Amino acid sequence: MAMAALRREGKRFAPLISPRSIDAARSSLISEELAPQGVRSISTQVVRNRMKSVKNIQKITKAMKMVAASKLRAIQVRAENSRGLWQPFTALLGDSPSIDVKRNVIVTISSDKGLCGGINSTSVKMSKGFYKLNSGPDKESKYVVVGEKAKAQLVRDSKKDIEISITELQKNPLNYTQVSVLADDILKNVEYDALRIIFNKFHSVVSFVPTMATVLSPEVVEREAEAGGKLGDLDSYEIEGGDTKAEVLMNLAEFQFSCVLFNAVLENACSEQGARMSAMDSSSRNAGDMLDRLTLTYNRSLSLSLSLSLSLSLSLTHTQLHHLCVIES
């Protein structure tokens, strides 16, 4: 009789102590303990997915840093060698950024790709600042934009002032012939008294210097030479051959602009790769810090879940034994 009664009571409590009911009660208790009032609990699966995505991002940023480092080593040597092209012009004609002329053409050098920090914004801000300083009723300033990033920023509020825009210049390895053809096209399509080439001069992997180089037109060079000053030394040189002084100054201005533009493009490309290395290194370190925080959150959630599961199992086992002891008595 007692055994039959025990079996009947056991059937009554079977849904309570079944494995399925234990798991359901365990999950509800864990969610109540983990989540604050009115906030959903953190799922360990969500944290694992987040950790996986952060690891993938970290792999990409590290790979981009290595690619930028390899490109920098190749371009840096060419940029340093190109400095010998424009330095003789600086020794002969000087660099006159403060000279006052009526028609300024601002040649802004930028990159075609992003993920390189604020290097392109620096060139654009410097170009806009010079444009505001040299704008007035009797002055005219125009833009020649080299690079997709500067074009995207200047076209917003200065679209009517952009004379020429050139993109994908760095798609192929740069050489002097390519840049000289580009310089010749610019000179044929714009009227200028002074060309202001704005670029980022490479200083080191972690630093670059916004720089402006000035190339004067032959008319302005001749006018300044007659007025004296540094350009007055040009009259002490003798002209050989049948070319006139105006023809020599024209050829000199064209050659100077092509050399300065070639060096500016290479210097800016070096600065771009150096800035990209720094940006990708910072991104990799930030991803590592985020991964550490996610790992800590995951471990805490997992340990809390295990402790709650263990305590729940023990409490259910104690309840089961209590009911059985009551039935037996």
TrEMBL record:
InterPro entries: ATP_synth_F1_ATPase_gsu, ATP_synth_F1_gsu. Signal peptide: none annotated. One of its GO terms (molecular function) is proton-transporting ATP synthase activity, rotational mechanism. Its main location: membrane. Pfam families: ATP-synt. Coiled coil: none annotated. This is ATP synthase subunit gamma. It is a peripheral membrane protein. F-type ATPases have 2 components, CF(1) - the catalytic core - and CF(0) - the membrane proton channel. CF(1) and CF(0) have multiple subunits. It is found in: Membrane. One of its GO terms (cellular component) is proton-transporting ATP synthase complex. Belongs to the ATPase gamma chain family. It comes from Macleaya cordata. The keyword Transport applies.
